[in-house]
Amino acid sequence: MTVLCKTSDIPAPGAKGFTLDGRALVAVHHNGRFFVYENRCPHRGVPLEWQPDQFLDVEASFIQCSTHGALFKIDTGECIAGPCHGQALSRIAFEQIDGQLVLL
Q1: How far does CA 101 lie from the centroid of its chain?
Q2: For residue 66, what are the contacts with CB-CB under 8 A and spacing of at least 6?
Q3: First CA to last CA across the chain, in angstroms?
Q4: pLDDT tens per residue, range 2-18
Q5: Where are the domains of the chain?
Q6: What is the pLDDT of residues 11-50, one digit of tens each?
Q7: H/E element holding 100?
Q8: Chain center to CA of 35
């Protein structure tokens, strides 16, 4: 198990990007819950953010790809708008332990 970060490192609502062992990840804090995904758009294979830690749309309701504006549900990673409609972000298994996000 690997500690990704402290839960307090991610604002609510908000998101933060990480690189761990050469793998780009994004952790999202939304409605009191946390979600971790691979930071890779299923359409183009590019990182999602347009600036460091800028992963959410202006209302902080969806994860938004900076390349083409695709919108992904925060709780499932499912693309609901854009060229990758029906595809999904790759979910990363983790647990919340003692105020930390721990990858499994």
Answers
A1: 13
A2: 47, 48, 49, 50, 54
A3: 5
A4: 999 999 999 999 999 99
A5: 2-103
A6: 999 999 999 999 999 999 999 999 999 999 999 899 999 8
A7: strand 100-103
A8: 7
| Residue 73 confidence (pLDDT) | 98
Find the largest Cα–Cα distance for the chain: 39
Chain length of the chain: 104
Cα distance between residue 42 and residue 68, in whole Å: 12
Residues 56-76 pLDDT 10s: 999 999 999 999 999 999 999
Q: Does domain 2-103 have CATH number 2.102.10.10?
A: yes
Q: Measured on CA atoms in the order 25, 90, 82, 28, is the torsion positive or negative?
A: negative
The C-alpha atoms of residue 63 and residue 37 are separated, in whole angstroms, by 10
Q: Say if residues 89 and 76 touch (Cβ distance below 8 Å).
A: no
Q: Which two tokens stand for residue 12?
A: 């609510």
* Alpha carbons 38 and 25: distance in angstroms, whole number: 4
Sheet arrangement for strand 23-30: 14-20, 23-30, 33-38
